[in-house]
Amino acid sequence: xxxxxxxxxxxxxxxxxxxxxxxxxxxxxxxxxxxxxxxxxxxxxxxxxxxxxxxxxxxxxxxxxxxxxxxxxxxxxxxxxxxxxxxxxxxxxxxxxxxxxxxxxxxxxxxxxxxxxxxxxxxxxxxxxxxxxxxxxxxxxxxxxxxxxxxxxxxxxxxxxxxxxxxxxxxxxxxxxxxxxxxxxxxxxxxxxxxxxxxxxxxxxxxxxxxxxxxxxxxxxxxxxxxxxxxxxxxxxxxxxxxxxxxxxxxxxxxxxxxxxxxxxxxxxxxxxxxxxxxxxxxxxxxxxxxxxxxxxxxxxxxxxxxxxxxxxxxxxxxxxxxxxxxxxxxxxxxxxxxxxxxxxxxxxxxxxxxxxxxxxxxx
Length: 364
Fold this sequence. Notes:
Rossmann fold
């Protein structure tokens, strides 16, 4: 059955472009459009779409008001935010993700109509496919009287064979986190669970464009006992601080005089079609600080992070993966699990306590 999508945007041009992009995708049906928030809610009630593409800045009711109304009504429509590529757009998007939106894309700010269409297609198509698949699996599980296996079974407390041979041998000196689709919500659950005196730095790669990572850091900072900031080039890494890789750049960790850890922000090419890329950070830590880190791989499309985890595992890195049930998209964690480089698979709410145990030398 095709995924049913409703397009909500106050711009006639963007409604048309997004509709055209969606109609070009297989197994996707555009069931309607709406130019403002009130009509959006009305058409959700009438049309029961699986997915809503939601503009944040609409008349009568803006995107945040629509999300609040959906949550109050108990609607389970999957929401993809369509955001302006501005500082204000970044803040609104972070708030929308906190309120239940699953992912976002940014509106092209320049170029021809054809270039805009191509940019939206590139960003929207994989998200719609991934989220529609998740919705399909949820519907199957909800309606099936018998348990349905959607992926290779993974015992949440069983250590894969490869990982058993290289479980953590010493307390890590830093924590690495890689995440993509669904990341702000996952980080918003995990990082506030870490104490302000955890004693190690936390480095995070979240697939995001420029501007938005600063908004993410500000949003997380308000919730966390740890300091949270967007990372800067050449700064020395300090304990009890979370460093978010800047959007549109690569982040790596290097060794400075005296063996201290220093962040490099580079303009190196994308990896796995991502910039920042999880593999880029993980690889730098494996090369420059072998045996010093533990790693967490969270919700996201694709397999970014798995190659870096292979390198980290050679030096007894302890690895946590988010489970399928709490992942918005079970791509990055599943790739790592299938590669045998994960020590434990946990739901989001259990990950902070496991990080604390690892840092204190209590894993597995």
